[in-house]
Amino acid sequence: MATVAFCGLSLTTPATAQQTGTAVDELVVTGSRIARPNLEAAQPLLVISSEKIEAKGQTNLAEAINESPSSGVPINPIGDQGSFGTGRNYVNLLNLGTNRTLTLVNGRRFVGSNAASLFTGAGAGGQVDLNGIPTGLVNRTERVFGTGGAVYGSDAIGGVVNIVTRTRYEGFEVNGQVGVSEHGDAQEYRARVIGGANFLDDRLNLMGSYEYNKSEELAFTDRSTTARQIAFANNPLNTGSSDLIAGSILIQNRRIPELTAGGLPARTGGSALSGILTIADPNSPGGRIAAQFDPAGNLVPYQTGVFYQTSIASGGDGLNLAKLTSLRSPLDRHVASGFATFEVTPKIRLKAEAFFSHVESVEPYNQPIYNAAIFGGNSAALRMSTANPFLSTQAKAAILAQPTALPADAASPGDRIFFLNRASSDIGNNKTEAQGDLYRGVLVAEGEFGLFGRDMNWDVSINRGQSKGTFSSPNVVQSRFLLAIDAVKDASGAVVCRDLTARANGCAPLNLFGEGAPTKAALDYVGVKFESEYQIDQTVYQANFGGSVIDLPAGPLGFNLGYEYRKEESDFQPNQPQRDGVGRSAAITPLNGEFETTEYYGEVSVPLVGGDFSFIGLNTLEVEGAYRYIDNSQAGEDKSWSYGVRWKPIADLTFRGTQSQSFRAPAITEVYLPTATSFITATDPCDSRNISTGPNPTARKANCAAAFTALGLPANFSLVSNIQSFTVQGATSGNPDLENEIAEQWTAGFVYQPSFVPNLALTFDYIDVKLTKAIVNFNLTSILSTCYDSNSYPSSVCNRFQRGNAASGAQAAQILGRDEAAGVLGPQTGFVNAGYTNFQGLTVGVDWNLELASVRGFETFGGGDPGTLDFNLDLFSVRQQETSVNGFGTDLNRDVGEIGNAEWQWKLESAYTRGPFSTIWTFNYIGESKFNNDFTIETRTPLTVDAYMRHDLVFSYDFADMIGSPMGLKNMRARLAIENLTDQPPPFGTTGLGVYDVVGRYYKLGLTARF
Which phi and psi (to 5°) does residue 316 adopt? Predict the structure, then answer.
């Protein structure tokens, strides 16, 4: 949306020039490198002023950007974190992917922080972590949608975020803020200082800032919305695929009934709850009840809850994932910046920028290592014997007294074999700790000169950035784990490891009977620390030359020519235990890669009609164009281009439009990733809940029947596919033959500024993006869809996975992970140029700055100063968002109207300012949303979640007039921000992660003093 900040308390505003009669300096706005005499642009542009960020107490630029309706679901510290991406803050314009949003600072690239790994939680690319950019010296944040490749280069698919800093600063500022939720948790603290001064007769300006920001953690159990554990489960009332009864329903208090933290003893290694061992029911004489191990190692009653399907029960004593899931990861940030501007001559300037940040985060709650029948391989249920000396007398007696005797232990006469299902949160909790440092320096020389009577400008710059850090987490050495659980008593009666060699090498026996049973010695023996180091280096050399060529009747013809050389290097090094795959996680391979790109670009702006050279119906007409030639060492040669037009039929109304071709170069991870183990989940078309859906239901049903028959199963076999709930081990790899992604983009809209309503601006823009040759990790969901939704089954893509046959027991028809059966490699995925995405959306903006003194009846209110009202409406509507990973459309995913991509979203900000007092009320609306467009009344209920409305309120007051000017005080403004004023929870049926507010009512109290 095209936008500009009006004077007063600035909100997010349309970038348009009001007719105030005041001269407007030429400046460069995002989307062009040509200086223009106003802020009107051909492309949709949204501006957030630093005053607005400060007034709302936002401590991170990501907060300000992500509250806009046109920002999609981000990567942030909310919810589960990537193993190598904990605490990151990446923005996602138009929901096209964080790696398809280009983030700049002062129009130049900023080093990314996305490690070269599959397990970062974000798509592979050079995403900029906004944690590393301070808020203190930011002047404004600009966003351009659906264009930018020709001017800035790779990654501008969804658009461009340009963070513009102040050019000069004089004075000193201190800022402090604290925040706390209604529940007394989720505390946040911010301290910031800013300083700047002029030297050498104002030719030299030095300015800098430092800020410290700390936010505390939250668990799923800390909020009722996430603690109630809502999940879809098989509907026991469903009778078939055409009975108008939903196949799945929402249940609350979801538990995993097949395992507990202390352990469930079972008759076999199968997953049926009927196999859980029993004890005498203390509440039903003569009855039996399922048993579990308590913390003392004794068997006590176990409530299975209401069972719905594998891994899903409602209530009971099964594993509660809410206790093992992070709602918000804590973040600790030290961020500093420094800027210098030196005027060598009135026409030549030298500039320098420096950034530093140190960020620490941890995922405080995470899932542990598992051993259960619902898993396979190293995570399968553990075979145990009643001969195990860690068994309590009570537990051993109860196991031996089963109504139906258990299999005998051939190695220990009189003892019996059973299996243990356990979630070992007391052994390997997988909590990931992350810390990272970022360094960036920029040197710039710029100036102006005259050439043949024309005004010219130039700049050259060197931009060097580095981001590096570590990720660490605890795990177990699987071979030692197996040795440690095989415990016996030695001649002295002490419990020891059975294996003599292991015992001689320090093996300490591991007790798994009851939560908290493992000793420190055993934990030290089986434990291992996984640690990975990453480093990302960016080097950019850039030069620009521009100015005006000739004077046309409507004004000068402007141009800019430029050159850019960029080198990106990324290195990811897991430690040896991770490379060896000694734990339960996949073996992690090191990755090192680099690429260079040399690019030449040009831009021209041609005013055809305007000023004194105008006509009826042609007040202004301007066309612009840009072209970029790219020579990438990895992806080869390519081009990007754009052209646009601005037409004013009358002074009050501007029509505008652009057409462009942008691109995204392959990321280092996508190209250089060695064959690496991955853990995979997928949507299985042959699952009984999905078999009658999809883009080609008839073909899907027939192909799945054929697959079942080939496995020795009935054609109408009813499959509940485990891969939809649990991962299997497979493999993926990079592709050195990848090409650039290509996006064909166009925008069209208007700006209306009626002269009869001062300071009112209305904007509308339609945005269309068609992305082809999308680089995708051809994931298992797409592989399965391509296999079973095709009219030519079976195709070669069906060879990328294997299913268990009829002789596989519980694994029959299940997709097998690596080594789950002889010769099974697990699903094989990898990066290819195959996918496409079609996006269409519209933005509407209304901005009105109303001086109440100009309103009849208010002239004398407040002693002649009734104050000012500011209204800003930012509306975003998604009209089309569909993605195919395989490129054939058989797996087409239509996202319009789904959770996280609501068809209608808007934000209304209303501000009132009078003298030292100001207040802002923000009203956010997210429309009713669907869980999935493929769901029908036959497959799911409910199908939608309700619309969501959130209110924020800010009050601020400047006390400077009350206390005078001690020590040169200019102003001292206190603010109170109340976020989610009505404590509105996410809609029922969703956790709200990344889409709705999950923290609840939140208070921020801050004070800013400027000297």
Answer: 90, -170
CA 424 vs CA 26, 510, 593: distances in Å: 64, 12, 37
Between β-strands 159-165 and 101-105, what pairing exists: parallel, antiparallel or unpaired? parallel
Instruction: Report d(CA 190, CA 54) in Å as an integer.
Output: 12
Tokens of 861: 């209110």
Q: CB within 8 A of 111, min separation 6: which ones?
A: 128, 438, 440, 465, 466, 467, 536, 537, 538
Greatest CA span in the chain, whole angstroms? 107
3-state secondary structure 17-71: CCCCCCCCCCECCCCCCCCECCCCCCCCEEEEEHHHHHHCCCCCHHHHHHCCCCE
Q: Which amino acid is at 953?
A: L
Strands 741-752 and 760-777: antiparallel
Q: Do residues 425 and 368 make contact, with C-beta atoms less than 8 angstroms apart?
A: yes
Among the residues of 893-986, which ranges form H helices? Answer: 960-963
Chain mean position to CA 543 = 34
What's the Rg (C-alpha) of the chain?
31
Of 57, 337, 50, the closest CA to residue 210 belongs to 337
How many Cβ atoms are within 10 Å of 243's Cβ, its own excluded?
11
CA angle 440, 442, 447 (to 5 degrees): 165
Q: Tell which residue, 794, 773, 741, has the closest CA to residue 884.
A: 773
pLDDT along the chain (1011 residues), means of 10: 30 38 50 66 84 91 94 92 92 96 97 94 95 93 93 96 94 96 97 97 96 96 96 93 91 96 93 92 94 98 96 96 95 97 97 97 92 89 97 97 95 96 89 95 97 94 98 94 96 96 97 97 96 97 96 94 98 95 86 97 96 93 96 96 96 96 97 86 93 88 95 94 88 91 96 95 96 91 89 86 90 88 85 93 96 86 88 97 88 93 97 95 97 93 97 94 79 95 96 94 96 91
d(CA 457, CA 444): 13
Question: What letter would DSSP give residue 508?
Answer: -
Token reading at 521: 């010695």
